[in-house]
Each structure stands twice: as structure tokens, then as C-alpha cells.
UniProtKB/TrEMBL annotation:
<feature type="binding site">
    <location>
        <position position="896"/>
    </location>
    <ligand>
        <name>ATP</name>
    </ligand>
</feature>
<feature type="binding site">
    <location>
        <position position="454"/>
    </location>
    <ligand>
        <name>ATP</name>
    </ligand>
</feature>
<comment type="similarity">
    <text>Belongs to the cation transport ATPase (P-type) (TC 3.A.3) family. Type IV subfamily.</text>
</comment>
<feature type="transmembrane region" description="Helical">
    <location>
        <begin position="982"/>
        <end position="1002"/>
    </location>
</feature>
<dbReference type="GO" id="GO:0042995">
    <property type="term" value="C:cell projection"/>
</dbReference>
<keyword id="KW-0256">Endoplasmic reticulum</keyword>
<feature type="transmembrane region" description="Helical">
    <location>
        <begin position="389"/>
        <end position="408"/>
    </location>
</feature>
<dbReference type="Pfam" id="PF13246">
    <property type="entry name" value="Cation_ATPase"/>
</dbReference>
<keyword id="KW-0547">Nucleotide-binding</keyword>
<feature type="binding site">
    <location>
        <position position="619"/>
    </location>
    <ligand>
        <name>ATP</name>
    </ligand>
</feature>
<feature type="transmembrane region" description="Helical">
    <location>
        <begin position="339"/>
        <end position="362"/>
    </location>
</feature>
<feature type="transmembrane region" description="Helical">
    <location>
        <begin position="1143"/>
        <end position="1166"/>
    </location>
</feature>
<feature type="binding site">
    <location>
        <position position="456"/>
    </location>
    <ligand>
        <name>Mg(2+)</name>
    </ligand>
</feature>
<keyword id="KW-0966">Cell projection</keyword>
<dbReference type="InterPro" id="IPR044492">
    <property type="entry name" value="P_typ_ATPase_HD_dom"/>
</dbReference>
<dbReference type="InterPro" id="IPR059000">
    <property type="entry name" value="ATPase_P-type_domA"/>
</dbReference>
<dbReference type="InterPro" id="IPR008250">
    <property type="entry name" value="ATPase_P-typ_transduc_dom_A_sf"/>
</dbReference>
Length: 1185
């Protein structure tokens, strides 16, 4: 490997984006974020005795007040808001929810209003109105009404069925019951009758009806287990814990009825994992956080009963706040299609105007002087031309295809079902099928340029296994016997001596087991004791088995490892934790838990041991632990060396450390901790500052190494996608060495790859930026030289960059909040100078970002490590912005949600980190390897089908409509139609719709196996080769030539001719039937030529459409229907009379041949001289036999 290695860089916390204040969902504004309340750290039940002062401060930020058991409290004027004019309504929502849109009275007007907001539908409504004006129209009203009603009807039925389902769900939910305090007793009450401030009782397996404050439960210390599957898709249990004071005093029914606490908290919002508030009761205040709130949509598990107080109800609950608007994604073809429809509108107006001018001229030259054309209306030629303009708008309206959008939606829906039904994307181990969660993006799957992938759980399995460790500078985990000698063959350690051991755990270092059993190494005992005590795992017993509920796979693996090595976490309460240490059960007082978050990258626990000593145990990322170690850590170098070895083996590492704390130091610190935990503003910042004071001078114990194996098929998938010219970027929070080694494991990097690191490209980018500044405003020649590539030569390159370097390069350093200082007013000149500096800085930043994207895109692969969720989304946004390329983001965890929502297409993997990524995604499946089939097969097929459908759809409409224009030259530009009205009505609905729909659903140029075998076939979608403005105008030209032939061949054949029986076939109605029949043959046989994959259904649709045309035409031209509806069916006997003339059949055959033979010749010529990739593949396969 050729490597240009940079020195190790640590993650500068000052430059790291603050992910804690990142919006949870898209409908959260920056103003909300600026004003949001900091979250209180869980597990703290401290009392603030300065209640009055605290309440005054809190009122400024927490304006939501809830009083228990006091319905009159909410009738105060300050809790009312004006809804309309002078009408006022309580700001507290009722608990009844309404997700439906319509009721029996509003359905028709509202649905029609929504549908006519779409430009195409409104356009046809205007046409219908114009057709009702006799002076304008030459076309019957039903020619527009029937297709419009069909489109509106299909959409209305779909909307109605969806809304009926919502009605049923709403009624089912609103009529559920639970127990609520009424008149001093718990009584069964419907959910819709629950109000804010009510005290409710919930039993095991019951759904939570509102967002409630947990007061007490049947479990020790008022723990309550909940399942959040309906909220975030996760099935693992979460635990909530009530305040100690409510747990102690609010257990009986009478105490619940007498409870009069007041909660002041933040306004309703959509942040599922955030809550800040305070409970005021009995002249004391108690901090509240998210761990004391049970959210609507969750389910009570493993808890017999619990009591709670309703804080948010109905539409104010967090789950309802999150059901709002989501980011709407549209495909590239969608945008192009809209522009093409606008182009057709413009062409329609220009043609109508030109024909109207022609009619005006004709009236002046011929119409006024021809007495037999007099219509008893003395209108000027210009006015007649004006009326004809609108007449031609009506006649040529089929240029704008009303059924286009409905047909596109049907095709996309069908393609989505094909993805859902694909058994080759079904993950049987977890019973997880592939799922298209949107139906609007399928063809975009065939145009991807860049894939942004998470590592853990996406490329890897995210099933963590404790493999190795380093304790006191000594590495453990190799194949060794009890004496410490290396073995050539692994022998699994026998854990039968440990009654709590898990039978699934495998370990091969017998020497470590002997060291633990001997008890001679106190550092080893501390190491595993730390793993057993420093965590947030919950334990429960079922069927005599000890089970753990962990928030993350890493934490679960570490606690499980400690359990197997003899240090077993048994149970916890609010203030204690019980551990079995080599068979001896001990309970420790937990004095404080210093939680993990993405800024801190560590967690600590302070415990009082049996002898009264106070000790802090801490585990975290090496970069943050090293900064806080005592200067005299003798084993630091040995541990760093072990960490490098573990990282080279692609193992995930954490450092473990501790420190002893004196009683006096703890008392001083604890006072600050209590003050910070009940702070009413900036609580997070206050707690972080206090945590920093105690987490220092740490003694390093060692490090853990956890294995997270690659998923099956990852290297093959990445290799195949790379051959399809798709660039893959890996964005991960792991160490640089770990990410780099995973890159080699999954073949993203090879031995021939030249790797560039952060400091290498920083110098390149800085030089480029300075040159650009120096050459600003210089000649075009200079600016051209600035676009030259960053790297010379064609070597295989990859970029590996850390999050800190990313911030440094992109000028994204976090600005610290400045303290308020008194300043003199600036002069106008100073203001102008400062504004100029800001503009210059912004321009430099934008230029630097563009340079970075250009440089990174010259690399075959990019790995960004140590990046935050916000940085992941920023990288995706930069590539979207500067490369104008189609992007796909794939991940499996909550930290990937922002990236998934930012990309053009988001893919979620149903992994070990819950379902947040899946619920935010556009597509989901069980394993990374299925991505190749989603893109190279379904994406490619969808793109080809949609492009073929659109090209043909425009072609057949132009071929159909432009015949009217050629006919205008022979009817005085009078807006007379060339076809029968019923033919115009049914052309797009019945005669030509099914074959092209089936091509859009079923066509494939090569099979799925060949699509995977030859990834280069994918490139045509990336280059937009199959549908663009060039293809659109070729379709227009093809349609125009077809319309010329369809009109002029019958016209020439009819001119001065006589039928076989002496009757003239050259009347208008016979001509219309001949032209229409020729058109139906041509367009249906043309789709046959365009079909690459023939099935019985395709053949039936083509020939069935032709047969259907003739069947309906003969019926509509019969005498019987004319007798019933004389004004609607005026072509009586035309088809039977005309089509029995062999002369007319020969005319149609000639028209069809002239239309289709050049197409056949052109296809053969192109396939021979300039064959496409798929043509080459098919030719090779036919040659091989």
C-alpha cells in the first residue's frame, strides 16, 4: 500500500458541532431550538428549597402549567387563546385525536378542491367550461369530461378508502378505556374524555393514552418498563423511574385523589427524547426530565400497574407533534416531466395562436366572400380568429396528457410492490422483507452517483462480542493456556464454575481466567467491577433466568462479559446497585450518574463502597479519557499500543479508568451538582461544567476491545457498486484506524490505493484557495487553470478524514457565545466594513467547501471517521449542492436519521439500533448486501421502464393530436376535429393506455442476473441517457412525422377516388375512421417494437387494444345506439361501410408500413453500428449460446 500517513489527530471538542440541540425532526425551527429548555440529567431526585425563587425563574422559560385534580385551574383567562375573531378556546387540547381529513359532508367539496389545486386538473376544468360555450367549441363536452371524471374518480376513491381507514383507527383509539380519578375514585373512562391534570392508572400491557408524569408503580422504587415500538419502532424495553417523593407518598387511591402538585414545563414540542420541567408540591420543587415521562403510544410491560398525571393530551402529545409534515422528495424525472408539460403548454398556446391567425386571414380572403359559408352572424374576422384561438386550445388539449400523472403513479405503485415482493431481498433470520416506504422515488434508484454509508450496523452486524482487553498494560484475549503460553489451536474457556455464565459467550484466553480466580491482581478485579457497575443497563428475571435490557449493543456486551468473568450485575434501584463479585453479593450506594452523550463521549458513576470510600468509575473514548488522566499513569503507553493493535484488528475500543474522591471533595462537588440539576436555564451546560470538575486526574485501568463483524456479502456488494461507477463514502463515529481497517476488510480500500489524510488535503486546499483569491478577476485563461484536478495521474486514491479535520477544512468551527459587553455605536463606515468582511468570509467558506467536494470526488472512496450526526448530514448536503449528483444515504441507527433525510434517497437497515432509521427512510431491508439488488436491478429497471413509458406517452399523444393541425389547412382553420368525438374521448382511456402501462411495469432489457453480472449497464441512468430534452423533442418529432403520415396518406388515397361499388369513400366520416384506425394500429404496434420483454399479458394488451377499438367503434356506429342517442352518436354506419372497402385497408396498411418500417430499419442500424451496453450483453450471450 502506498500511504501518505498523517499524524494522529484528536477531536477538538470546541470545533465539534453540538448535536444535542440538533432538531429531532424537520418541522422544528431554529427559533424553537434557541428557546428550548435544556434537559435534566436522569436519576436525580434532589430537592430545591428555594421554591419561590426557582418558580419565578422557571416561569420565564416554562409556560406550560398543569395542576393535578383541578379542572377549574384551566379555565383561567391566561390559559385561553383566540381562535377566530373574539372567540376563545383553552390552549390545552382534549385527548381525542383526529387524523382523518374528511367527513360525509366535507368529502366531496374538500377533495375536489384539493384535486383542482393541481395544475393539470384545473387546466382541464377550464377546458370543460370553455367547451360549454357554443361560439368557441367544435368538440363535444364529454371528450374532456369523461377522462377528467376518470382521473378525479380514481384519486377520490383512493383518498376515500384511506380516510375511512383513518376514521376507523381514530374511533378505535379514542374509545379505548383506562382508569381515571373521578370523584375521589378510579373509574373506567374513555381516552377521548381524559383531560390535562387527570390522574390515571395503567395496567400491564396497556397502551399509554397521553404524555404523563410517572408518579408511582408496583415495581420497587417505582420503576416502570415500557415498549416504544409504536413510537420509534424499537422493541427492546426502556425503563422509566418516578421521583422518590411521589414513589413514597403516592401509592394509595386516596393519596392520588388528594394530590395537588403543580407542574411547570416546556410547551408541547416534537422532541421525543427531551423534557424539562419542575414539580412544585408541599412547598418544595423537584426537577423533571424525560426519564420520568411516559409518552403516548408506548405500552406498559413487566409492570403490574402504574400511576401518572397527564401533562400533554391529544394533539399536544409528542407522538402527534411528530406526525406533522415531512420532507417531500421528488425525483429528477419528476422535475424534468413538469418542465416538459410546461413546454407543451407553451407549444399549445403558440400553435393555437398561429392557427387562429390563419383563420383570421382565411376569413378575410375567402370566408367573407363565400355566400354559402354565411352563418347569420356578422362577426369580424379578427373576432372569429379570437374565438378560434380558444377553439384550438380545446381541440389540441390532448397534447397535455391528463392521464400522465395517474399513469405514472400506477407504475410507481406497481414497482414498489415488486420491491416488497422480492424474495431475494428477504432476510429470513429476522423475518424482514424489503419495504418500499415511498412510491415516488423508484426510478431515481437507477440514477445514483454517491452512496453515503454508516459503518456500525450497516456494513457490520452490530452484534457486539467481547474479544480482547488490556488491563494494567497487559493484553488478554489471545489463544493461551492457563500458564500464559500461546496455543496453536484455540480451546474454549469452560465457564461452568460460574452459575451466572451465559452459555453463548466464547473466550479462548485461559490465562485471564486463572488470574481472575487467583485474585492476586487487584487491577483485574477493578476492571471487571467497573464493567459491572458503570452502565445504565436494567436487569430482570424471568423463568429463573437473569436478563439484561441495554440501551446499546456495546453496553450490553460489556456487562455480559463482566457477568461471565464472575462480576455479575444483579439489580438496581434509584440509589443502589447490587453486584455478585465472584459469588459474593454486595450492594453499593450510587451517589451520582454522569451520563453519556455525544459531546462527552464518556459516562461515569460515583459510588460509596462498603468501607465508606467514595470512588468514581469512568469509561469512554480514548481521545477524551487521555485528556483527563493523571500525569503519572505508568501504563499509558502500553495501553495506547494495545489500542492501536485492537484498532488494526477492526475492534471497537473503550478506555476504563477510576479515581478516589475524598468525603470533603465530594460534599463540595455535590452541592454544585444539586444546584446544576435543578437549574432552570442552561441546565445541560451547568451539569457538563460540574462533571468536568470531578472527571479529572483519572487512573487508567485498561481498555476493552469488542468485535463487530462485517455483514455477509459486503465486499462483493461494494465491488459491484464501484463497477457501476457509484462512489461510496463511509461516514462513521469510530476511530480512524478502525475505520481504515474496515475499509480494507470490505474492499473499499486495496493495497494499490494511495491514501490521503486530513493534513495532506488541508495544505492542497489552502494553496488552491489562496490562488483563487489572488487570481480573482483575472483572465478567463487563469480561471480555466483553476479548474484543473487536484491530483496528477490516474492512481487509485482514497481520502480518510476525521471530524476535527473536516471542521477545520470546511471552516465550520463552533463559535462560542460571547458575553454581553457594553459597546459604543458603530459608525456607518464601520458597519459597512464589517458587512464586507462577513461577505468575504462567507464567500471564502463557500469556495473552500466547493474545493473540498471537488477534491474528495476525485477519490474513488472517502472515509470520514469521528464524525457527528450533524457532520454526516453536512457532507451529504455539500455533495448535493456542489456536484448536483443524486445521492443515497444508508444507515441503521438514530444517529443516521439526519443523513437519511438529507439525501435524495434514504435507506434504513432493520438492525440492532432500533427502528428510527427505518422509520425515516424511503426504503428498508435487513442487510447491506441487498442494496446492490435494489439499485442494479429494481432501480435500473424502474428507470428504463419510466423513461420508455414517458417517451412513448408523449409520442402517442403528439401523433394523435397533431393530425388536427394538418387537417386545419383544409378546413379554413376552423377548429374542426379530424376524428369522431368518441374516439377522442376514449383514445387515452381505453385504446392506447394498457400496453404502455404494462411496459412501464414489466419491461426489462436484460434479466436480473445479467443486471448484477454486468454492473456497467447501470451507467446510462447516471448520465440521463434515456430521458432528457433531446429525447423529448425526438418524441415530438417522431409524433409529428407519424401524424403527417396518418393524415396525408389517407388524404391522398381519398382524393378524387371512388369505391369498388361505385360509392365515394371520400366523405369526412370515412376519412376520420380510416385515420383513426391507422393511428390505433401504428401506436399499438409501435409499443410492440419498444417492448424488450414479451409476456402473454403484453401481447394480449397490444392486440386486445386494437380489437377493443374495433369492437367499440362498430357498436358506436350502429343504428341502434343512434336511435337511442341521436345527438351523441352521429357516425351511423360509417365504420361498417368504410371498412368493408379493400381500398381503405390497403390505405391503412400503407400508412402503417411507412410509419413503422423506418423505425425498424433505424433500430437495426443503431444496434449494429452503435450498440448499447445491453445490446452487447445480449449479443455476447446469444453468441455463447
Amino acid at each position: 500500500m502506498i500511504s501518505e500517513r498523517d499524524s494522529e489527530t484528536t477531536f477538538d471538542e470546541d470545533s465539534q458541532p453540538n448535536d444535542e440541540v440538533m432538531p429531532y425532526s424537520d418541522d422544528e425551527t431554529e427559533d424553537e431550538l434557541d428557546s428550548q429548555q435544556p434537559t435534566i440529567k436522569p436519576g436525580q431526585n434532589q430537592i430545591n428549597r428555594g421554591t419561590k425563587e426557582s418558580r419565578e425563574l422557571l416561569k420565564k422559560d416554562c409556560s406550560w402549567q398543569v395542576k393535578a385534580n383541578d379542572p377549574h385551574f384551566y379555565e383561567q383567562p391566561q390559559f385561553k387563546r383566540t381562535t377566530f375573531l373574539c372567540f376563545k378556546k383553552s390552549k390545552y387540547a382534549g385527548n381525542a385525536i383526529k387524523t382523518y381529513k374528511y367527513n360525509p359532508i366535507t368529502f366531496l367539496p374538500l377533495n375536489l378542491f384539493e384535486q383542482f389545486k393541481r395544475a393539470a386538473n384545473f387546466y382541464f376544468l377550464v377546458l370543460l367550461i370553455l367547451q360549454s360555450i357554443p361560439q368557441i367549441t367544435t368538440l363535444s363536452w364529454y371528450t374532456t369530461l369523461v377522462p377528467l371524471l376518470l382521473v378525479l374518480g380514481i384519486t377520490a376513491v383512493k383518498d376515500l378508502l384511506d380516510d375511512i381507514t383513518r376514521h376507523k383507527m381514530d374511533n378505535e383509539v379514542n374509545n379505548r378505556t383506562c382508569e381515571v380519578i373521578r370523584d375521589g375514585r378510579f373509574k373506567n373512562t374513555k381516552w377521548k374524555d381524559i383531560k390535562v391534570g387527570d390522574i390515571i392508572r395503567l395496567k400491564k400491557n396497556a397502551f399509554i393514552p397521553a404524555d404523563i408524569l410517572l408518579l408511582s408503580s408496583s415495581e420497587p422504587n417505582s420503576l416502570c418498563y415500557v415498549e416504544t415500538a409504536e413510537l420509534d419502532g424499537e422493541t427492546n424495553l426502556k425503563f422509566k423511574m418516578a421521583l422518590e417523593v411521589t414513589h413514597r407518598y403516592l401509592q394509595e387511591e386516596s393519596a392520588m385523589a388528594d394530590f395537588d402538585g403543580l407542574v411547570e414545563c416546556e410547551e408541547p414540542n416534537n422532541r421525543l427524547d427531551k423534557f424539562a420541567g419542575t414539580l412544585f408540591w408541599r412547598n418544595m420543587s423537584y426537577p423533571l426530565d424525560a426519564d420520568k415521562i411516559l409518552l403516548r403510544g408506548c405500552k406498559i410491560r413487566n409492570t403490574d400497574f402504574c400511576h401518572g398525571m397527564v401533562i400533554f393530551a391529544g394533539g399536544d402529545t409528542k407522538i402527534m407533534k411528530n406526525s406533522g409534515k415531512t420532507r417531500f422528495k421528488r425525483t429528477k424525472i419528476d422535475s424534468l416531466m413538469n418542465y416538459m408539460v410546461y413546454t407543451i403548454f407553451l407549444v399549445l398556446i403558440l400553435l393555437s395562436a398561429g392557427l387562429a391567425i390563419g383563420h383570421t386571414y382565411w376569413e378575410q380572403q375567402i370566408g367573407n366572400s363565400s355566400w354559402y359559408l354565411y352563418d347569420a352572424q356578422d362577426l369580424s374576422p379578427s373576432y372569429r380568429g379570437f374565438l378560434n384561438f380558444w377553439g384550438y386550445i380545446i381541440v389540441l388539449n390532448t397534447m397535455v396528457p391528463i392521464s400522465l400523472y395517474v399513469s405514472v403513479e400506477v407504475i410507481r405503485l406497481g414497482q414498489s410492490y415488486f420491491i416488497n415482493w422480492d424474495l431475494q431481498m428477504y432476510y429470513s433470520e429476522k423475518d424482514t422483507p424489503a419495504k418500499a416506504r415511498t412510491t415516488t422515488l423508484n426510478e431515481q434508484l437507477g440514477q445514483i452517483h454517491y452512496i453515503f454509508s454508516d459503518k456500525t450496523g450497516t456494513l457490520t452486524q452490530n452484534i457486539m462480542t467481547f474479544k480482547k482487553c488490556c488491563i494494567n498494560g497487559q493484553r488478554y484475549g489471545d489463544w493461551r493456556d492457563g500458564a500464559g503460553q500461546l496455543q496453536s489451536h484455540p480451546q474454549q474457556v469452560d465457564f461452568s464454575w460460574n452459575t451466572y455464565a451465559d452459555g453463548k459467550f466464547s473466550f479462548y484466553d485461559h490465562y485471564l481466567i486463572e488470574q481472575i480466580k487467583s485474585g492476586k491482581e487487584p487491577e483485574i478485579q477493578k476492571f471487571f467491577f467497573l464493567l459491572a457497575i458503570c452502565h445504565t443497563v436494567m436487569a430482570d428475571s424471568s423463568d429463573g433466568q437473569l436478563n439484561y435490557q441495554a440501551a446499546s449493543p456495546d453496553e450490553g456486551a460489556l456487562v455480559m462479559a463482566a457477568r461471565n468473568f464472575g462480576y455479575v450485575f444483579l439489580s438496581r434501584t434509584q440509589n443502589t446497585i447490587t453486584i455478585s463479585e465472584m459469588g459474593v453479593e454486595r450492594t453499593y450506594d450510587v451517589l451520582a450518574i454522569l451520563d453519556f452523550n455525544s459531546d462527552r463521549k464518556r459516562m461515569s458513576v460515583i459510588v460509596r463502597e462498603s468501607g465508606g470510600n467514595i470512588r468514581l468509575y469512568c469509561k469512554g473514548a480514548d481521545t477524551v479519557i487521555y485528556e483527563r488522566l493523571h500525569p503519572r499513569n505508568l501504563k499509558r503507553e502500553a495501553t495506547e499500543e494495545a489500542l492501536d493493535i485492537f484498532a488494526s484488528e477492526t475492534l471497537r475500543t473503550l478506555c476504563l479508568c477510576y479515581r478516589d474522591i475524598s468525603h470533603d471533595e465530594f460534599e463540595v462537588w455535590n452541592k454544585k451538582f444539586v444546584e446544576a440539576s435543578v437549574a432552570t436555564t442552561n441546565r445541560d451546560e451547568a451539569l457538563d461544567k460540574v462533571y468536568e470538575e470531578i472527571e479529572k486526574n483519572l487512573i487508567l485501568l485498561g481498555a476493552t476491545a469488542i468485535e463487530d463483524k462485517l455483514q455477509d456479502g459486503v465486499p462483493e456488494t461494494i465491488s459491484r457498486l464501484s463497477k457501476a461507477d457509484i462512489k461510496i463514502w463511509v461516514l462513521t463515529g469510530d476511530k480512524k484506524e478502525t475505520a481504515e481497517n474496515i475499509g480494507f476488510s470490505c474492499e473499499l480500500l486495496t493495497d494499490e490505493t494511495t491514501i490521503c489524510y486530513g493534513e495532506d488535503i488541508s495544505a492542497l486546499l489552502q494553496t488552491r484557495l489562496e490562488n483563487q483569491r489572488n487570481r480573482a478577476g483575472s483572465s478567463a485563461h487563469s480561471s480555466l487553470r483553476m479548474n484543473e484536478p487536484f491530483f496528477q495521474g490516474s492512481r487509485d486514491r482514497a481520502l480518510i478524514i476525521t471530524g476535527s479535520w473536516l471542521n477545520e477544512i470546511l471552516l465550520e468551527k463552533k463559535k462560542k457565545k460571547k458575553k454581553l459587553k457594553l459597546k459604543f455605536p458603530r459608525t456607518a463606515e464601520e458597519e459597512k466594513k464589517q458587512a464586507e468582511q462577513r461577505r468575504s468570509a462567507e464567500a471564502s467558506k463557500e469556495q473552500q467547501q466547493q474545493n473540498f467536494v471537488d477534491l474528495a470526488c476525485e477519490c474513488r472512496a472517502v472515509i470520514c471517521c469521528r464524525v457527528t450526526p450533524k457532520q454526516k448530514a453536512m457532507v451529504v448536503e455539500l455533495v448535493k449542492k456542489y456536484k448536483k449528483a443524486i445521492t443515497l444515504a444508508i444507515g441503521d441507527g438514530a444517529n443516521d436519521v439526519n443523513m437519511i433525510k438529507t439525501a435524495h434517497i434514504g435507506v434504513g437497515i432493520s438492525g440492532q439500533e432500533g427502528m428510527q432509521a427505518v422509520m425515516s427512510s424511503d426504503y428498508s431491508f435487513g442487510q447491506f448486501r441487498y442494496l446492490q439488488r435494489l439499485l442494479l436491478v429494481h432501480g435500473r429497471w424502474s428507470y428504463i421502464r419510466m423513461c420508455k413509458f414517458l417517451r412513448y406517452f408523449f409520442y402517442k399523444n403528439f401523433a394523435f393530436t397533431l393530425v388536427h393541425i394538418w387537417y386545419s389547412f383544409f378546413n379554413g382553420f376552423s377548429a374542426q376535429t379530424a376524428y369522431e368525438d368518441w374516439f377522442i374521448t376514449l383514445y387515452n382511456v381505453l385504446y392506447s393506455s394498457l400496453p404502455v402501462l404494462l411496459v412501464g411495469l414489466l419491461d426489462q432489457d436484460v434479466s436480473d442476473k445479467l443486471s448484477l453480472r454486468f454492473p456497467r449497464l447501470y451507467v446510462l441512468g447516471q448520465k440521463d441517457l434515456l430521458f432528457n430534452y433531446k429525447k423529448f423533442f425526438l418524441s415530438l418529432l417522431h409524433g409529428a412525422l407519424t401524424s403527417l403520415i396518418i393524415f396525408f396518406i389517407p388524404y391522398g388515397a381519398y382524393l378524387k377516388t371512388m369505391g369498388q361499388d361505385g360509392e365515394a369513400p371520400s366523405d369526412y366520416q370515412s376519412f376520420a375512421v380510416t385515420a383513426a384506425s391507422s393511428l390505433i394500429f401504428v401506436v399499438n404496434l409501435q409499443i410492440g417494437l419498444d417492448t424488450s420483454y414479451w409476456t402473454f399479458i403484453n401481447a394480449f394488451s397490444v392486440f386486445g387494444s386494437i380489437a377493443l377499438y374495433f369492437g367499440i367503434t362498430f357498436d358506436f356506429h350502429s343504428a341502434g345506439i343512434h336511435v337511442l342517442f341521436p345527438s351523441g352518436f352521429q357516425f351511423t354506419g360509417t365504420a361498417p361501410n368504410a371498412l368493408r372497402q379493400p381500398y381503405l385497408w390497403l390505405t391503412m396498411i400503407l400508412s402503417i408500413a411507412i410509419c413503422l418500417l423506418p423505425v425498424v430499419a433505424e433500430r437495426f442500424f443503431v444496434a449494429t453500428i452503435w450498440p448499447s451496453e445491453s445490446d452487447r450483453v445480449s449479443e455476447v450471450l446469444s453468441y455463447l449460446g
